[in-house]
Amino acid sequence: MTDKAVIARRCVEKALEIIVANEAELGRLDAAAGDGDHGAGMVRGLKAAVAAAQNEGTPGQILVQAGSAFADAAGGASGALIGTLIMTVGQSLPEGNIDPTTLQVALEAGINALAKLGKARPGDKTMLDTLDPFLRAYGEAAQSGASVSSAWQAALPAAEQGAMSTAEMVSKRGRASRLGERSRGHVDAGAMSMLLVLRAVGQVLNEAYPDGH
Ligand code: ADP
Ligand code: MG
Hints:
Helix content is 70%, strand content 0%. By secondary structure, it is mainly alpha-helical. It has one domain: Serine Threonine Protein Phosphatase 5, Tetratricopeptide repeat (Alpha Horseshoe), CATH 1.25.40.340. The chain binds adenosine-5'-diphosphate and magnesium ion. Residues 30, 34-35, 37-38, 41, 76-78, 81, 118-120, 126-128, 173-175, 188-191 line the site of adenosine-5'-diphosphate.
């Protein structure tokens, strides 16, 4: 079994790797409705987060430092929102054992903090349309006894469905909301980046727990 702090650090590193590979696509999605800077902002934020995550500490402390660095470096609306998400998950993780339920509680706290800061609700065509269905699916799997890595895996299809469903939505929050009806027809950039980050974490968990535990 891999040390939990190492897993937290690897999650941030893998997120950067996958976001870098999709930077242009995220920029294109954001350009369809916003200003086209989402891919670049995510890469800038995650590079700073990876650097901050190299410090020693508990998984929670590592995520707090990574989230804070992300918010400072990424800028834009999503910088503050995703920074808050990562920091709040970090603050809400227990110092001791992280099990499927304590992770669920921490994820819920982080997603609630993001929603409150952005005044967004599911259906507003934002990151939340990926995160909220993921959290519900993860919670169901965790409560029926799945391990962290299997619950995470089981919830990824709900995240994907949520992200894809934003293509049919009209934007209610952020820059894209100025477009009104014209924002329909493209997947939301932030919803896509959250899907990529959740997949990155899933890959790390699979590697750390190859037998599903
Ligand atoms: P900016 O809009 O400042 O250019 P980005 O391009 O980095 O920031 O991020 C845009 C993404 O941020 C959107 O695709 C959307 O998912 C998310 N977003 C914007 N505003 C909000 C909000 N109020 N609540 C939740 N998510 C938001
Ligand atoms: Mg933008």
